[in-house]
Design brief:
Blueprint lengths: L1 H43 L18 E7 L2 E8 L8 E6 L9 H4 L8 E6 L13 H19 L8 E6 L1 H12 L4 E5 L5 H9 L1 H4 L8 H8 L7 E7 L7 H10 L3 E6 L7 H4 L1 H8 L7 H12 L3 H15 L5 H5 L4 H9 L6 H18 L7
Parallel strand pairs: 3-4, 3-5, 5-6, 6-7, 7-8
Antiparallel strand pairs: 1-2, 2-4
Helix pairs in contact: 4-7, 12-14, 12-15
Amino acid sequence: MQDSFLERTRGVVSARKVIRALISILVLLFAALVILYFRQHSFIYHPRPYHDSYAYALPARGVEINYTVAATKYCAFYIPGSAPQPKRLWLAFCGNGSLALDWTSILKEYPYNGDAFLLIDYPGYGKNGGYATIASTRASADTALKALTEWLHTDEDHLALCAIGHSLGAAVALDFAAHHRVQKVVLIAPFTTLREEAATIFGNWVARLLIESYDNRDNLSEIVKQNPVPKVAIFHGTNDDIIPMRMSRELEREFSFVEFFAVKGADHVSILNHAHDDIIDWMNGASGTSDMDGKAARVAETEAGAEEFKIASRAHVCQHYQSGSDFCQRTSFGILRVKKIAARNPGIPNSMILSRTRACISATEISGRTNCPF
């Protein structure tokens, strides 16, 4: 009987230990969830100030645009084009670990053609005060644009607005485009929604804890209502292990007006170098090439003889006959690139170029498409 009592006592003690252990685990899980919930801002945003290495990042012609949001001081950076009033104004938004002036290294080879850039830091980044949220970031971008229009002595209705963004910045660019009339949007390595991106890294149960989530699907649905519908291009690296390329593919499938460009071998950061020329070409009106067409274009650029002649001929059309025309905007090789290649082939007889380019011009005028016989 005494043994039975001892066994029951041991059983009660063991049950209490199990319950205590379970309670401890639940408390730890709850504490972890609380930390994740209240610290999620630090997982999304990584604000930092400018240090000494940025002292000469802003070009000599660049201008600091100072403005205030809710009594907090902010600073954006304006890089003018070749004219007092910009032909197009690109608002640029960086990734969550970058700063606005990081765009200057990416844009340093951008043609001096009248396009201007407004580089915007998020609240709490660079020289900005504040705390980054979707609402505060939107308010900052809107106010920066207003401050610039006042500096330019114009208004938003007289500007051809465009937006470009990388990673988180792609979502901010789309959010801007959903609230303003824009002509073009460039999205580099975008996600579908921030919640879906969080799910790929932390799992669905953590993603559900997000207080707010950028939704690129919703914003694309908004901008498609604009008339005319803005041109939207997505560039995504095939080796991106931060934001999977399938997310960009999903956006392309769901929205027929989106152009998609897979950048072979590029990861989440190196895409800014790998796709540099293609992005700038697209921004300047070249239709660009995607998937199989892109492969054909790359082959054409490296093969000698006839292919070099084709490219040089197209460049001749753009340089001497139809510069600025729709044909030049549509050429699949990109105006900047073909001019460089043409410069490497000065030995092509002018008579050959003239005969081919005349035929090309005729074909283009008739069909309205790049339908050249070479």
